[in-house]
Structure prediction request, 426 residues.
Amino acid sequence: MLKAFYRRRLFILATSLFAYLLVFFQRSSLNVLQADLQSEFALSAFQFSSLSAVYFYLYAFLQIPSGLLVDFMGSRKTSTFGLLLAGFGSLLMALSRDYTWLYIGRLISTVGVAPVFINTLKLNGEWFKPREFMTLTGITLFVGNSGAMLASYPLSWVSSLYGWRTAFIVISLFTIVIAVIAYFVVRDKPSDLGFEDHSLPAEALTLKKTWEGFMRTIKKRVLYFPIFIYAFSFAVVQTLQAAWGARWSQTLLGIDRVSAGFIVMWISLGVMFGALIGGRLADRFGRALLMNIFLGAFALVWCLLPLAIKLPFTMGLLSLWMFLVGFFGSGFSITWHLGKEIAGRNYSGIGMALVNGSGFLLAAIYQLVYGKILDQYRLGEQYLWAGFAKGNIMLIVSAIMAFVLSFIYYLRHVKTPKNLPQSIAK
Prediction:
């Protein structure tokens, strides 16, 4: 019986992780395709930023409905239907002949992937013990960012050989396959298959109770610490990883698109290993303390950028800097656990959705602002470094804000915890 439980748990974890890998690929895929899309569809920097940012705006907007759906309907149903929709959106993007249909395809795929991450964390919480949650979150981010890594150098290489449309057709088909597997493999909790749940049975939720839980959750003032910490740190990472990192590297070093994709890939590698190592350390030594250390180092890495730019930058040095941005930026992952615990088990999906949505909303705003700044420094098909330097000021300030809020949270709610679940006050 125990072996059957562990085997089924592993299958469910693998399915949800593959689904999350696809979410990251969808999110980051436009970065290395920026030159192709701007050339083929005659896009300005602001139009391209809009195409990238609409994912973040819509994803952020859908996080609260996604959290409500996951808590009410369960992970299996929302994962299956969401992935089917995402596969259709990717196919529509691959077949689009103008900017309008490309945009619509992006919208549809975003709606589809919106619940996947909350589903994954919800399943982790139901099928694994609470003390394993941050380790599982680290593994989740490790696998997810491998999708972002595939959307950097490998995607750039494949698109240079076979075209970006072929890559999107393949990812569309793969997404649909994972949706079918999710329907047959995933179950919301162990008791659905006759196994014993790890904790007391969750309250059966009606629409009314779900809404009442949402209203109670948003009134918890302490929840706004993880919300803003996540937003200020995650938005910085995504502005480079999902939108402007490749062109940023090309402008600074004068390299080609494929080489720039290789450099951006190091952000994903940094997040992967940072989340994996940080998740394990957080479960062992304390989550809030580790978040504080990571985000402090994250702010320092960004503050050193203006000085580092004055040095003779090489591909190796820039790759190292990108890796450190990802590694220490992964400290934002601890805020999901905080949102989950503050909201409570019955409404954990809502708590995590509120935190997650904040980061995507601010990332969308940052990408649009960044693109607007770059349009002021555009010469033909090229962008002056002065535009990137001006946009970087926004990212540096944001990284500092993430650390400051993390430090205040640590002093106010961890060193002297008040009315917090015991699992947070560590």
Remarks:
- The chain has a mean pLDDT of 84.
- The two ends are 34 Å apart (CA to CA).
- Residues 27 and 402 are 22 Å apart (CA to CA).
